[in-house]
Please model this.
Amino acid sequence: MDHPLRAPDAVRPWRTAAYVAGAIAVVELLLLLFVGGGKLTGAVSDRLQVAAQKRAVAPVARAAKPATRKPASATAAKQPRSKTVVLVLNGNGRTGAASRAASRVRARGYRIGVVANAPSRVPRSMVMYRPGFVGEGQRLGKDLGVRLVTPLDGMRTGTLGHAQVVFIVGP
Model:
């Protein structure tokens, strides 16, 4: 009787090799997704940080826009320098910058209110004044050589204490 010859069921090496190759491919795919996702997350995080920094500086940039126009005329100060209180803020991040600036302001005859850090960095030095103190703000700007003199913007008058003018030290 003729019977076909059967191969043993024990081992089929090609099937095992296919399973091993498929498992390695899946591991490589997961590794690539993990590394690529990390890089993508880093890029998105960097872009979000840059956008947040631009938004933080936007109020200061808006305050700078009116200074690009030439002032219509210089308004005379109503108070003498010795009666004008100045709030000095460090807007450049360098240690001691506000203190040195306060010494310069005091040497010009002004009274110093508070010396502190600004809530955010500014692109350049500026003088801001309370409503009704245009002349004092312009005079302080001229005395210190600061060309950016604007009305109070981004700060509430309640945070100024007794100061009529704010000097923010920039880079």
